[in-house]
Amino acid sequence: MFGLAARLGAQWAQTPLGRGLVILLWCLAALLAAGVVVFVGKRLGGLSLLAAMLTDYGRAARFGGRPPVWLDDPPANALRITHLSDLHITEGPDVRMVEKDEPGGNQALQALLSRPEVQESDLVLLTGDVTDRGTAISWRAALDALTEHGLTDRAVLVPGNHDLAVVDPWGGLRSTGNRWRRNDRFGVVQLANLLKFAESFAETGGGKRGFVLSRDKELVRYEQAWLEAERAVRPLIAALPSMPVPKQRLGAGWLQRRSEILAYEARIIAARKRLLALFPIAVPMPGHDAVVFVLNSCTPVSRHPATNALGRIGRAQYKRLDALAGFFGEHLKLVGLHHHVVRRTEEQGRGFIDRLMAKFTVLSDASPLVRFCRKHRVRAVMNGHRHLSYNLRLPSGTTIMASPSSTLGDELAHDPRPQLIRYDVADQPSGHTVGIYRQVVRLPI
Ligand SMILES: [Fe+2]
Ligand SMILES: [Fe+2]
Known about the structure:
Blueprint: H1 2-12, H2 16-43, H3 45-55, E1 79-84, H4 106-113, H5 116-119, E2 123-127, H6 136-148, E3 155-158, H7 161-164, H8 170-175, H9 188-203, H10 205-209, E4 211-213, E5 219-221, H11 222-239, H12 254-276, E6 281-285, E7 290-294, H13 315-325, E8 332-336, H14 352-360, H15 367-376, E9 380-383, E10 390-393, E11 399-402, E12 419-425, E13 436-442
Parallel strand pairs: 1-2, 2-3, 7-8, 8-9, 9-11
Antiparallel strand pairs: 1-12, 4-5, 6-7, 10-11, 12-13
The chain binds fe (ii) ion (2 copies).
The site of one fe (ii) ion (FE2) has 6 residues, from helix 7.
């Protein structure tokens, strides 16, 4: 159309009617181009993110760094942290997980939580995939286990992709070809799961002591922000199962149907935005000059099971994080998120699938986080996600502490034993060390 408009422009520009036609054609061509840009932006956003992850485009995956030197003994007056991750709790001890033909981590969790290393902690940080598919019953099971062991008030939850983004038909993927094409077109599952996470977070110490940034950039208690967000969002989520989904069909009445779809979608997008604005959350530690920043690294909308593991913090959340950190002068700053910040170099020499997975599952926008850590002198970043443990001290001094699955084991080490990591963090690094005492507690299977 551009070519046609340009060619006609030369021939027809002699008459007023010709000039009008040329202008009309140019307008049509511009409209078409704008439509294509909007379509690609909206529909292929996930694909471009995927391309970014697979190619390292626009992302620094290797930040340098070296292995951290731990303290030889636990320091006095330390902040004692139990790091749990990827528990994959299902609805009951015999309910299988979504990706594996095995029961979830329910039973192992009971054994882990009764350990003295956990009981004597100031903070129990759960860095995502607490549940296997984000259902209300599995959240209940996880929260009840924390309550039974007297840990709810010390617990801080971080959302993982299994908590938020696992779209239902995994089972169907294996059995029928048709289900492969079933998308969660409007991201309804993720919206409902965000609500369940935010509600669960409110029950824990993180929810009771946490703060978020309001829309006016003021500091507000998480409890207040959550109640306001819940009031705005829950009626829509409760009504969704009975709301007819507008059909997308060509033919008579297309415009009317299109506007109905856009109105339906706009309500879901607004609700999702409202819940996403609850992140990041800053949780000060009582009795310690310390604060934990909780990030949501599962912000891309997963419309299909295959894209559930993509990780991204997003520019808006990073902006809020920077502003939120300005309110907290605490000496010891920690960050909790689900996705890996760096790719482990050891994995580069392994098989194709391992290399692909290593690229695929690392945070796609890690650079701003590393800049944040440098600017605010963050002592440690704690994460989970790939069920493998590694530690790295960045050139800025921040230690990255990646946890294996506490209930399913360490896949890097081929160690399936349930295990937890306990960190005793001193006020500051000392000598050649990072000022942290690290202890791994492994349980028999
Ligand atoms: Fe996991
Ligand atoms: Fe994960």
